[in-house]
Amino acid sequence: MTNLDVGVDPLGMTLADYSVFRGRHRQALREEYRAMMRRGDGVALPAISRRTDDSLDGTVKFCLPVEGTGSGPALETESVIIPMTAFGGTKWYTLCLSSQVGCRMACSFCETGRMGLLKNLTAGQIVRQRLVARTIRMTGREEEMAEGNVRKAKYFADGIHNIVFMGMGEPLDNVENVVQAIRVFTEPAGLDFPHGQITVSTVGRVDGLRKLAEICKAEPVWRNLRIAISLNAARDKLRDDLMPINKAMPLAELKRTLVEYPLAPKARFLIEYVLIKGVNDSLADADAVIDFCRDLPCIVNLIPYNPQRFAAYETPEEPVILAFLNHLKERGIFTKRRVTHGRELMGACGQLGNPEVRRNKRSGLPVVQ
């Protein structure tokens, strides 16, 4: 068994964990475990509590109930299936997972951060999001496959080629359950999802990054895990205001941790930067990003701010976005602009979070834990 107590939830178990749980040798349970994880045999998945589809681009946001007791609005996870298209029309999908309900990082530009932390998800609850996404994607899949324009691979019968921990919560604030979920995703006898197609996005929890670094040293395949850093400001004073974590783990410490992190050869960090009108979108801000990225293998991913409920921030005008983007490129920083999906569903970056739960929490009414 791993050093994490996975309890009695088989979906949070690797084959080795399942073997201990069942009290039988893993070879005797291999086919049973594979059938459970790949086909859902014997698995009762939760019913979707809310689902919203974008008919224009095919983005799907779905919510799953999280068990608990008490009165008030029930907690739920929020996950997003995002369509991706390459040159030539080839399609695949990215699954954005939540690691927590709410988040205690309190980033001022994030809907989830304004909820506060309500619950850390177990490994099984994280894995369930993947399995429910598979059932959503397999519905009507035959028609897509007949079109012949969807990537095919042994791992991805449902077309989901990437898993990103970019939903609700700070993954490295729930690092043990996230690591266990990744072990389940990558278990060869089960889902067999490659480390190199899983991304963990963090606000800069250097303690969590160091834990991942230790795992990389012990298990080199983990060096292929993709790491994304939610930067959003490269000057400490501004980042303190936007992201309170920076007061405890400032930019210099974050940069040092990244420089020391054992990335796979030719791998790069993804530096996520949400552009907010009049806050962090000046060329001086861009120069600070350039200084931070110097000598760091990375790709900067610019994300124009997505509107949220009752938030004071705004999205920069298009010329400002392009000026910031071009400034980075002209100074040799590999920079991309993220294509926004799911904005109208409140499913885009920074938009996840149930406002009813947040209202009850703020007013002192009970919330299911």
Structural class: alpha/beta
Task: Provide the residue-averaged pLDDT.
Answer: 87
Question: What's the CATH first level of the largest domain?
Answer: Alpha Beta
Uncertain ranges: 1-5, 146-155, 341-348, 362-369
| Cα distance spanning the termini | 27 Å
Computed over alpha carbons, the radius of gyration is: 20 Å
Spatial strand sequence of the major β-sheet: 1-2-3-4-7-8-9-10-11-12
Number of domains: 2
Beta-strand portion reads 15-25%
CA-based shape: globular
Number of strands: 12
Structure characterization notes:
With 369 residues, the protein is of the alpha/beta class. It folds into 2 domains: 8-41, no CATH class; 45-363, Alpha-Beta Barrel (TIM Barrel), CATH 3.20.20. It is 34% helix and 18% strand. It is built from 12 helices and 12 strands. It has helices at 15-22, 26-39, 123-138, 141-147, 175-186, 206-218, 236-242, 245-248, 251-260, 283-293, 318-330, 355-363; strands spanning 50-53, 60-65, 76-85, 91-96, 100-103, 116-120, 160-165, 198-202, 226-230, 269-275, 298-304, 335-337. The strands form 2 sheets. A 10-stranded mixed beta sheet has the order 1-2-3-4-7-8-9-10-11-12, covered by helices on one side. The protein has a two-stranded antiparallel ribbon with strand order 5-6. Helix 3 packs across helix 5 and helix 10 runs parallel beside helix 11 (318-330). The longest helix has 16 residues, at 123-138. The chain is globular. The chain starts with 14 loop residues before the first helix and ends in a 6-residue tail after the last helix. The relative contact order is 0.14. Mean pLDDT is 87; it is low at 1-5, 146-155, 341-348 and 362-369.
